[in-house]
Specification:
Blueprint (H helix, E strand, L loop, with lengths): L1 H11 L5 E12 L5 E4 L6 E8 L7 E4 L22 E4 L6 E5 L4 E3 L6 E11 L1 E2 L8 E2 L1
Antiparallel strand pairs: 1-8, 2-7, 3-6, 3-8, 4-5, 4-7, 9-10
Length: 138
């Protein structure tokens, strides 16, 4: 988890001193259960890793975070990843997803048992730009 989250931060071009896992838990969804929409406040990255899934387990779905994105929207010829208000990643055993903690997500009702571990990470280091009065060391 540490290596993958550090790799994500490096790929995104962030400077950091270290990362800290602020929480880790397991999720066990049984058939006909879901996990309601939520975010992970006071963290920078979050993730999920699937321990037990099947073709009938629900994906994780992420919502478009732009509140004004629906103000003026032409009708779609077809739905695709580029014009969608939602992105989803299938739950697959041995596979994981790292995402920004502020990004709202949920798991729709599943048809089969789905077991995963999830976590939150805070980035330790300098936040903001120097001399802006909007910077801090965390």
């Amino acid at each position: 988890i540490y290596e993958q989250n550090k790799r994500c931060l490096n790929d995104l071009g962030y400077k950091f001193d270290d990362i800290e896992i602020t929480g880790m838990w397991s999720n066990h969804l049984k058939p006909n259960q879901s996990h309601p929409p939520h975010t992970h406040s006071n963290n920078f990255l979050s993730g999920v890793f699937y321990l037990k899934t099947s073709p009938q387990t629900s994906p994780i779905q992420f919502f478009d975070p732009r509140p004004q994105s629906n103000v003026l929207k032409p009708r779609k010829k077809e739905f695709n990843l580029l014009n969608s208000d939602m992105a989803q990643f299938n739950s697959e055993t041995g596979y994981g997803v790292v995402f920004p903690s502020w990004l709202q997500h949920w798991v729709p009702e599943t048809k089969d048992e789905r077991i995963s571990i999830a976590w939150n990470v805070i980035v330790r280091g300098e936040y903001g730009e120097p001399n802006t009065l909007q910077n801090a060391t965390i």
